[in-house]
Amino acid sequence: MPPISLAAIALAFTVEWLADYIIGAVLFLVFAPELPASGTTPAEIQRISREMIATTAFLPWAFALGSVTTVGGGYLAARVARRVPYYHGLAMGIVGILYIFVMWHSDGGASQYAGLFLTIPLSILGAHFARKHMPPQT
């Protein structure tokens, strides 16, 4: 098995996680503008979150942008590693699936299952895009 750069995987996963976090926060603010800036209890935030997910276009946007960050994570891992891009894309996909299992919650719905099936292909797609910008392997 070719050597996988754990540093490239760690960096790419961290960047992908931060991008997902920021995108999620922005989407939350866009789709739940009635949320007060301070003084909201965690129970109220959960209630607003459930209502927002059930009644707005939050999920399609979150799914689409999450897919883009998954492709970006595979791309970044392959570019930083500078070798065996598809293995680094696969490694990013595996780390992503492990993260999905760690963060699994019972009311996640179909988006969690879609994430399980799409994470590896999307990460490998990102690595494929990176391969186009890399010098040929010898």
Kindly describe this structure:
With 138 residues, the chain is mostly helical. It has one domain. It is elongated and about 55 Å long. The relative contact order is 0.17.
Tell me, rounded to a whole number, the average pLDDT: 86
Strand fraction equals under 5%
Main sheet?
none
Strand segment count: 0
- Summarize the amount of helix as a percent range: over 70%
Written as H for each helix and E for each strand, in order along the chain, the element string is: HHHHH
Explain the layout of strands and helices.
Layout: H1 6-31, H2 42-55, H3 58-81, H4 85-102, H5 110-131
Quick recap:
The protein is 75% helix and 0% strand.
Please name the defining characteristics of this protein.
single chain; 75% helix; elongated; mainly alpha; 138 residues; 5 helices
